[in-house]
Each structure stands twice: as C-alpha cells, then as structure tokens.
Amino acid sequence: MDERAAVANSLTAELLAALAPLSVHRYRFGLRVVSGTLRLGEFKGSALRGTLLRRLHSLYCVQPFVRRPLACLPCQQAARCPIAFLVDTSADVLAVSGARGDELPRPYAIEPPLDGRLTYEAEALFEFGVTLFGRANLLLPYLVGAVNDFADRLGMGHEGERGLLVLETVWAEQPLSRQRLAVWGAESSAVAGVERGQLAGLQAGMSVAAMMAGLPERAERVTLLFRTPLTLKAGGRVWREPPPFALLLQRLLERVAGLLQVLGDRPLALPFADVLAAAAAVRLLTPADDPLPARWQDVERYSSTHQQRLAIGGLIGHLHYAGELGPLLPWLALGQWLHVGKAAVQGNGSYRLAAVAL
Question: Does the reported pTM lie above 0.85?
Fold first, then answer.
C-alpha cells in the first residue's frame, strides 16, 4: 500500500468517535389498503416524502401561521422544534455555522418499496422503510404519528378515488441481519416474551464502528449494485454514464460531512483531500459479461407543488471499480445506509456492496 492510500485509510479510533453521530436506525412501516386502490408513480420515494412532510407539519407544527409551506422560518421556535429538525435543515433553522451550502441533508432516508407495483388493491399490504440517523431516532414517535395519519393522502388517485390506508405495524429492523421486532401496532404484543436487551439492541441501531467490522484490509475490485436511481451532477451537467470513482466518493463524503453538521455537536474536518487523492487512482471497469450493467433509467414523479409530473432519472445496475480499494471500503460500507447523489432522502442513490475481490 503506497503512502497516499495509507493516509486515506484514516478511520482511526479518533475518527470513528467523531463519526459516532451517524449511527443507523432502520424501521419498516406496514400499511394495509382497507378500501379503494392505492395508485403510485414509478418513483414512490417522492410521494412518500411529500406525504410524510405534509402530515408532520399538519399534526405537529406549533405556529403554522408564521411558516411557509414545508419551511420553518421565520418561526422563533424553529431551532428547538423537533419537526424542524426533520423537515427543514436550512443552516439558519439549525443555527449551524460554516455549513457547506444553505441547506444541509435531512437526518433520515426513505427506503421505498422496490416491488415494481404501481397499484395496490384493497387488502394489499404496502411496506416502506425509513432510516433515521443519530439523534433523529428520538423522533420516531412523530414519524409514527405522521404515517398513522396517511389515510387517503398518499398516491395520485384516479377519477377522484384514492386508496384508504391504515397503519398496522411498525418494525425495528437490525440493519445487517434484517431481523425484525414489532414496536408499534397489534403485532407489538409479540415482543412481550423477548428479552428487553434484544429489543433495545434493535432500536439502538448500528454504530459506524459496527458498519466497518469485518471489512477486508485489501481489495482490488468492488461492484456496487444501485437499486434506485443514482443521479450525480458535476461540471454543469448530469452524469448519464457510469461516473468516475472519485466523483462518486466525493459526493458521498459531502453527504457524510453535511449529516455530521446536522447531527454532531462539533465540526469535523474529514480527510477529504487524502481520501479523494487515493480515489483518483481507482479505475472504472465495464465488464462485457455483466448481466446488469448500470444504465440510465428515466422515471417520473408527481410534484404537488407544480401540480404536474416531472421527469427525473438516474443510473440503475452495477458499477465496477478496480484499484487500491481496501482503504476506501469503509466509506463505501457507510454509504450503503446513507445513500448518495441527488434525492437521497427520497430513496435515490441506494446501493449495496455486491462484490469485493481481494
């Protein structure tokens, strides 16, 4: 390992401690369609985020007469309001100095269903996930209340009809094992015989150190499987082709830095320059035998603000990279839970480490 790569392998105990606010807490929400038909566009994450924000504001905003829609200024309570922490992460609202940009990442990410369905008839179960980061986990009751109030407000409707939804169950999900325990709803009584420590462990989430555990020290090739559209913009254009590794990692580090500004209590100087210098030496591969190469996929979302469907898109499928990747694996492992690129909070840029070659 050369000196440049060695510097990039900087997830020391001190840095792990600084990254601790990025603990991951995953929840699954199960809603039953009790009447009518739930109709959704291909980009379900946008509808879920929009409905969630509107219900949070409607139920919990204490001064709705002084705010703009989905914004929390000039409300004097914004800096202390838990709803503002979820829905409006502008630097002014959070009173964050030295922010990279006017608006910081929201401390959660939606995990939309990937079943390909656009309609859910009566009696169908509709599931989606929400990952909360760090202290945002304390606000789970607000999210449950908002989702419990979805009723007939989710979906596009058809000839005036919308499916009526009832929240049945909320599960805490261990990020790695996917083990579930019901924490809300009728099924939650099933945890009565479960040791309190096991339930607490699920709800406590996963630390950054746990995310890094077991990663190999050396890797010469990685394959990332993007399950939702990856949209990256650089040099004044959107990358419709597989991006260079350095660009992908830069956007991921920017997201990490922004979330730490939202969640942390002290500024953190991430080793941007050193990590990106090592990333610049990583090559993009395009194997001819790849059964699922990354390709641009156009999708649409409905904008309630503009009252029309908007075209969006991103890369779906495999991205292959080769080089001295061992020191960079911890950042890629972390990104699996954070997402990367535009619309990450809505569920875009979700990937997993599909393969690691030593």
Answer: yes
**Residues 310-356: pLDDT tens digits?**
667 899 999 999 999 998 999 999 999 999 999 999 999 999 999 88
Residue that is last in its domain, among 190, 206, 222: 206
The CB density around residue 187, as the number of other CB atoms within 10 Å, is: 16
Please give the Cα distance from 141 to 29 (Å, whole number): 13
Tokens of 239: 């990358």
- Any idea what DSSP says for residue 207? -
Host H or E run for residue 223: strand 221-230
Token representation of residue 161: 């009809």
Per the structure, the complete domain to which residue 300 belongs is given by 3-22+209-357
Cβ(251)–Cβ(243) below 8 Å? no
DSSP secondary structure code for residue 188 in this structure: G
Domain endpoint, select from 206, 221, 248: 206
Strands (E), 48-200: 108-111, 119-120, 125-133, 164-173, 180-185
- Identify the CA nearest to 132 among candidates 240, 39, 259, 268: 259
Query: How many Å separate Cα 224 from the centre of its chain?
Result: 16
- Candidates 163, 32, 49; CA nearest to 108 is 49
Output phi, psi for 300, to 5 deg: -125, 150
